[in-house]
Amino acid sequence: MKQLSFYKGGVDIRKNLLDAADPSSLSLFFVVGLIVGSFLNVCIYRIPRKKSLVSPRSFCPNCNTPIGWYANIPVLSYIFLLGRCRACKAKIPIRYPLVELLTGYVFVHLYYVFIQYRHESPCIFICYIALCCALIISTFVDLELLVIPNEVTFVGIPLALVLSVICPGLHDAQNTLRNFSLTGIYRLDTLIASTIGMLTGGCLIFLCSILGKWVFKKDAMGLGDVKLMGMIGGITGWKLAVSIFFVAPFFGLLMAVPVLLFKKSHLIPYGPFLSLAALVCIVMQDYFIGLVNMYVQLFAVLFSGFHS
Ligand SMILES: [Zn+2]
């Protein structure tokens, strides 16, 4: 009879737990993530330098020697080559294996959370993966050159709108539209939800940059951050966009103190913190959406209180 305790609501909990930690598919997605990460490295180097992503093949930026497939295996090649080019022994930036490992980790984490744990549709998983890839490119370009490439946001912003029509569950799952329809057409509603998310994200950062300019008398935040946050909001919806806006400064403060202490430059890229906050808020979306809902209700009560 004890066996019965494993069954809850007709579902075998043991099976769900096992499913939720299926090691073979997790390692498969880790390897896929490493390979995608290797391509993101190409994007990070070539996009800001206005070079083609497809040709020529990977080469050493120091001696221009083409890199063979055996020297292009994610992470492993870096370890076997001891972090140096095979031909000229120039140092390979640590960024290469880092981006690959980070992408692998993001793939595994999102797959675990959205497919194995929450049983969301693969479409939603793909949307978040696409957003995270764009965020990884923006983050590492921003860290190196203090600019968020337009090539990422100008593709990302329309893509976010298209994805919210192709994959309407993206906004439905976040409770943006529950019990509420603006037009009566589901996919048009999700398109509007995406647009509202985009405007919320973009406008919040834009207001900050105007305020920063007014207070500090110089550019505090670039238009790149506005476009980046617009792209994020288009995928996450307005509730998570607001959450990301409030979470990002915490990561920013953690980084700003050591940078201002040890570096002469007072320029700190903000894109990486928005990206990190976006990842955290997407993974913990139930918590953050709940929090925003609570504040909405609180304001509703306060507002109706003033009128009664
Ligand atoms: Zn070389």
Give an overview of the whole structure:
The chain has a two-stranded antiparallel sheet with strand order 1-2. Strand 1 (7-8) and strand 2 form a beta hairpin. The longest helix has 31 residues, at 186-216. It is mainly α. The protein has helices spanning 13-20, 23-46, 76-80, 95-117, 122-145, 150-166, 169-172, 186-216, 223-236, 238-262, 271-283, 285-307; strands spanning 7-8, 11-12. The termini are far apart. The chain contains twelve helices and two strands, in the order ββαααααααααααα. Helix 10 crosses helix 11. Helix content is 69%, strand content 1%. It folds into two domains: 10-119, no CATH class; 123-308, no CATH class. Residues 1-11 have low confidence and may be disordered. Zinc ion binds at residues 60, 62-63, 65, 85, 87-88, 90.
